[in-house]
Amino acid sequence: MRETALRMSEVLLETRGLCVRFAARRGAVARAVDGVDLRVRRGEVLALVGESGCGKTTLARTIMGLERPAEGEVVYEGERIRYDGRFLRDYRGKVQMVFQDPMGSLNPRQTVYEAVAEGLRIQKRPGDEALRVADALSRAGLRPPERFLELYPYELSGGQRQRVVIAGAMALEPALLVADEPVSSLDASVRGEILKLMLDLVRETGVTILVVTHDLGLAWNIADRIAVMYLGRIVEEGPAEELLSEPRHPYTRALLSVVPEVEEMEQVILQGEAPDPTRIPAGCRFHPRCPLVASGEAARLGIEERCRGDDPGLHAVAPDHTAACHALRGAV
Amino acid sequence: MSDPLLSVRDLHVTYRGERGVVPAVRGVSFDLAPGETLGLAGESGCGKSTIAGALLRVLPRGTQVTGEVLLDGEDVLAMKPGRLRAVRWTELSIVFQGALHALNPVQRIGDQIGEAIAIHRTADDTRARIAELLETVGIPERRIDDYPHQLSGGQRQRVLIALALACNPRVLIADEPTTALDVMVQAQVLDLLERLQRELSLSMIFITHDLSTLSDVCQRTAVMYAGRVVEEGDAAEVFARPAHPYTSALAAAFPRIGDQAHRMRPSGLAGDPPDPRSIPSGCPFHPRCAVSVAECPELDVELWPAGDRRRAACIHARDGAPHV
User: Which residue in B has a C-alpha nearest to residue A276's C-alpha?
Assistant: First the structure.
């Protein structure tokens, strides 16, 4: 399916045909993740971007083993993940998650030391616990670590709390860190420092990062590759710089055009909110909001019928760059 | 330049609560010309939302407010309650942040807007006026009897805007009106605010931490830090060529996509925004500043001229040499 053959050793984690569904009101089914094939490569920072409700957080949670797929599978290091307690415990020693709101992920009655040591204890990691905790704090930029060990979350600033959460995750020396909007609850001047920390961790420890975000500026700051998600599906995936400077999919183009940080693009403001995962349109799921369809461009290209009737699926638009759009078929 | 519609002179706001005395705003002055949009930028705790509260006098009881807020020359802070009620919503009005919480969840949206109209008796046919307002903000009239939970986040924010416009105010204060919204919905709401500002000749104060948004929406921007304005000037210029090192850091937090200087190089500031209860001495930014010099901890900073209609509260601006 893909033009670029990746050596299996380069793939740390992948999802194959992943579907996650939830029961919604009045017996409806929300197809939150609706057929995702995603490969996370060893040592990269991959940004999963999209609007709220597109399924990006559900996809991240499923990768963590927190949600079970209705179809498809999550494959880590060539092995399909299982949902028994033993497998998941081992798995979470290797794959760690950092959530959006550090206050919500820290126990208010636990000191910084306890918070960072907890994972080590659950994972029964051998060695000197105190040393590992101090080392993790120091790596996360809380120096000297002794100053922070006995503090409680309320005594820390927002940025410091997120550093504690990251220290707790990194203390286990995971191979993959899944970070869901890691800086969106932080003050603007503090964000950059946390992003810098994440890049430093990649360089120093070789950890792979999957960062889930709605913020394309963040992707410009730290991502090697970007996957754009729309209504449960990846609609474009490619190298960050290329995807942000030459977006191919009409949805990616619209999304970029409204970011105030992009100046040269003509604004394409899509009307309405992100659509409803209980009623995914037939054909290309983006067609009801697609500017190409609305402007008559799709009709002129003779593809409108396909837009309304055929699911395009991801195809190559450039080396290592895929998109799901009938208008881009045959672009290479 | 025409006379300012709104002129804030040496505003100080001090909260007094269980946790002691908190000087949230420490001497802020700015002017708003008719039809102008002014941006107030800064992070949490810098005092920007407190200013919004002070302009409308909706701060907690016991809060000490000094200085002047002159609306057409009349001091809002000195108004008697009756006069203040008449001015609120009809002259000065606000769109609060957090569309999820600012609406009454058990009242139909039409009734909430109608209430504001009825109190101020600004329209004879209330129902028709509500429908007109909803249409202005892009909500179909048939939603008039909906409850807030039946609306999406973007629609609720539109209802709040309709509510703020109910009595034809001249000054609209928008406090983080797009913060909780998705980027596409944000663009829709910003587009709406810009259109309204133009069509209704509104004067607007736009409060946010996002400098890049301000550079799009506003003519002028004032950047706040620790309860004071630290830089002011043309909005696009302030964002593109900051004169204060704090503004540079804030601008860098929202990198321009395509700018190689920020590709794989996120930048931020060491430390955290200061606690208003213990503001550093001298220039309050000095502990986080990369270009501070020996004098900064004792320096009595003020807004020094830093170019064309630009002022900055930085020793480097005083000395005439831009730091960046």
Answer: B152
Rounded-to-5 percentages of helix, strand, coil across chain B: 35, 25, 45
Q: Which residues of chain A does B263 touch, with a Cβ-Cβ cutoff of 8 Å?
A: 220-221, 241
Interface contact A260-B252, CB threshold 8 A: no
Residue range A8-328, CATH number: 3.40.50.300
CA distance linking residue A109 with residue B298, whole number of Å = 39
- Global pTM? 0.89
Q: Given A52, A199, A269, which is nearest B191 (Cβ)? A: A269
ipTM over 0.90: no
So where are chain A's domains? 8-328
Residue ranges of the domains in chain B? 6-91+169-259
**pLDDT tens string B121-155:** 767 788 899 999 998 898 988 999 999 988 888 88
> In angstroms, how far is CA B126 from the centroid of its own chain?
30
A159 interfacial to chain B (CB closer than 8 Å): yes
Distance from CA of A79 to the nearest CA of B (A): 32
* pLDDT tens string A64-107: 999 999 999 999 999 999 999 999 999 999 999 998 888 888 99
Put simply, the answer to whether A199 touches B288 (Cβ < 8 Å) is no
What sections of chain A are H helices per DSSP?
A: 56-63, 85-94, 102-105, 112-122, 129-139, 158-170, 188-205, 216-222, 240-245, 250-257, 291-294, 297-300, 304-309
Assigned CATH topology for domain B6-91+169-259: Rossmann fold (3.40.50)
